Amino acid sequence: MFTGIIEAIGTIRALTPKGGDVRVRVETGKLDLSDVKLGDSIAVNGVCLTAVELPGDGFWADVSRETLARTAFIDLKAGSRVNLEKALTPTSRLGGHLVSGHVDGVGEIIARDENARAVQFRVRAPAELARYIAMKGSITVDGTSLTVNAVDGAEFELTIVPHTLAETIMVDYRPGRQVNLEVDLLARYLERLLLGDKAAEPAKKASSLTEHFLAEHGYLK
Q: How crowded is the C-beta side of 181, counted as CA atoms within 13 Å?
């Protein structure tokens, strides 16, 4: 679990295809790794990854095919800047909201406007996530816990203060940018609860769209 309060900005140093998925090396910048052990979780742009090697200035992690297909991780390359947060501990302050690190979908920045010293972003979410996004509710964008200021269909607005711009990769956002979205945990569990007995009915078998997507990007060679 995470809080959505970004601790450092890191840099992708390597992305190595490995057996159909990817191994990634992240340089962690000012992130304190003194208490990080092999097997610990670190959120990279809101994606929960497991540290499998600790070379000293960062970590290596494996990125599964599922993650590649469901997040904007597929757009990252060597040199990309990323938001970083270590996993929540029992003594951590919950400054944001509870974040699982399991991305629900990929959104798109469609507008950026100055708003006094802040910046106003308009984001388009996938249609299937629109029902989870509420005005003044919480949403996670590339791992950053944020408050939704307005909602219009599948689009929502965010007002980002100077501190958040300085401490996250949001300063780099421009229209057309793809971002990872995680909706509020309570909204997802509430929907499941409201299904009642129907929750026990088997879901339709997943299509081969994931495999097609990965093949197009060269991960199914």
A: 27
